[in-house]
Structures are given as C-alpha cells and as structure tokens.
Write a structure and sequence with these properties.
Helices cover about 10% and strands about 45% of the residues. By secondary structure, it is mainly beta. The chain has a single domain (about 5-159), classed as Nucleoside Triphosphate Pyrophosphohydrolase (Alpha-Beta Complex). Strands 1, 2, 3, 4, 5, 6, 7, 8, 9, 10 and 11 form an eleven-stranded mixed sheet that branches. The longest helix has 13 residues, at about 50-60. The model has no long low-confidence stretch (mean pLDDT about 90).
Length: about 160
C-alpha cells in the first residue's frame, strides 16, 4: 500500500525519485495524458524505505537496477492539481526524497515505457543545460543540478 492520503479536495503523497544523469542529460518520464515531464520515481510503500522505493521504481520504469549514490534533495511541494492525472483544483502536498543514482556510462535502457494505472509512460533524456525550455518538474532542477554533488538540500516550493 502506497504512503498517501487522498480526499476529494486534498492529496498527500510520500514519493521517492531518481536523478539519473548521463553525458549532460537527465532522465525524465512523461505519460500519454499530461503535457509535462516529471522525475522518474513513485510512491513509497508503507514499511518501505525511500531508498528501496527509488530502486524499485527505477527498475520498474527503465528495466535497469541502478544503484543509489546518495540522497541529494528533500522536497516539500505544495501545488494545486490542473487536471490530467491530478483532478483540477485538488490541493496537493508531496514529500519527495530525490536520490542521485550512480552513472552507468550509457543512456541505453532495457525498457523505454511502462504503464501505471492504465496510463502509458515513456522515458526521455533531456539536456540539463536546456531544462528551462521544457515543462519539466521539479522546476528547482534547473538551478540546483549544478551543485548536486554537495550536501543534502531541503527545498520547499509553493505553486
């Protein structure tokens, strides 16, 4: 069971996500319903550590068992659903742990697509230096990926 709480008007979700970088590009996911790209990852299950969750999610979405290098960001994200997979007007609170994954030296994935809740999802390598030209979430990646090798950073966003 996922660590989440959903009502008609509010949604809380505990999530673990991966930062996978190869040759100046970062791996993002995009589904067939929404217009934006988002980080590879998903919900942490009750009784599961965030680190184990990110490994599981990355394996499910890419077919590759990436190793965790370290925790990079803790993100508290407050936003309102705009439609698509998130009901329009729903107040959302997401707590996400972003893990930097160890480079494999290749962009080749065993799987480039998966299905979640009947919605197809695809993987895309986006150039880090041009992230600001994409509708990609989280937005803080645009500035923060430059100093990712430093300490764990706590980020709060309210959209």
């Amino acid at each position: 069971m996922d660590c989440k709480l959903i009502t008609d008007e509010k949604r809380f979700r505990y999530r673990a996500a991966a930062i996978i970088i190869e040759d100046g590009d970062i791996l993002f996911a995009k589904n067939e319903r929404d217009s934006y790209y988002y980080s590879v990852g998903g919900a942490v299950k009750i009784g599961e550590s965030a680190e184990n969750a990110v490994k599981r999610e990355v394996l499910e979405e890419t077919g590759i068992a990436y190793e965790v290098e370290r925790l990079a960001f803790i993100h508290e994200n407050f936003f309102v659903g705009k439609g698509g997979t998130l009901k329009k007007g729903v107040k959302c609170h997401e707590l996400c742990f972003y893990f930097l994954m160890k480079s494999r030296g290749t962009k080749k994935l065993k799987s480039n697509s998966s299905t979640t809740g009947g919605i197809r999802e695809f993987m895309y390598w986006l150039p880090i230096e041009k992230l600001d030209s994409y509708e990609a979430h989280p937005k803080f990646f645009i500035k923060e990926l430059e100093s990712i090798r430093g300490n764990i950073k706590h980020i709060i966003t309210e959209e």
